[in-house]
Amino acid sequence: MSRFWLFTLLVLVLTAGSALAETPLTPAVVGGEQVFKVDWTPGERHGVPVVTGQLTNTFGMTATNVRLLVESLDTTGQVTASTIGYVSQPLSEGQIIAFDVPVPTRAPNYRVSIFQYEWIQAGSGEGSSE
Questions:
Q1: Domain of residue 31, residue span
Q2: What is the CATH number of the domain that holds 43?
Q3: In b/e form, how buried is each residue of 23-34, taking b as 16+ CB within 10 angstroms?
Q4: For the chain, what is the domain count?
Q5: Residue 95, in any domain of the structure
Q6: pTM score, two decimals?
Q7: Quick check: 3 pLDDT over 80?
Q8: Is position 60 within any domain?
Q9: 10 in a domain, yes or no?
Q10: What's the pLDDT band for 22 if we cut at 50, 70, 90?
Q11: Tens digit of each residue's pLDDT (9 = 90 or more) over 31-77
C-alpha cells in the first residue's frame, strides 16, 4: 500500500474515532430507574477517580448483563465524558450488589443511570432483552 493511501486511511480512522468519542451515550433501555435503585458516590481508588455504589433490584425477576452509564458532568451540568460499567453477576429480586466504575477524569459531579439489562426467564436459561 502506498504511503499516501496509508496516511489517508489513518486520518479516516482517527477522524471516525473522534466523532464517535464526542457522541453522547444514551441508555439502551427505558425505565431502568423503575426496576433498580442506584446509590453512588464519587471517590478514588489507587489514584484513579471512580464512582462506587450499590445497585438494588426492586423488580420480581432476576436481571443479568446489567450495565451502568456513568456520565462526568461539568459545573453547568453538561456531560464531559461517559463510561459504561458492568455489574459482575446476576441480581435477583431484592439483591444488592456493590459496583466500582473507573472514570476517565475527575469531574465536579457525575450522573449514574441504568444503561442496559436483561431479565432471566424462569426455567428457560435464556435472558430476554429489555
A1: 27-129
A2: 2.60.40.1150
A3: eeeebeeeebee
A4: 1
A5: yes
A6: 0.74
A7: no
A8: yes
A9: no
A10: low
A11: 888 999 999 999 999 999 999 999 999 999 999 999 999 999 999 99
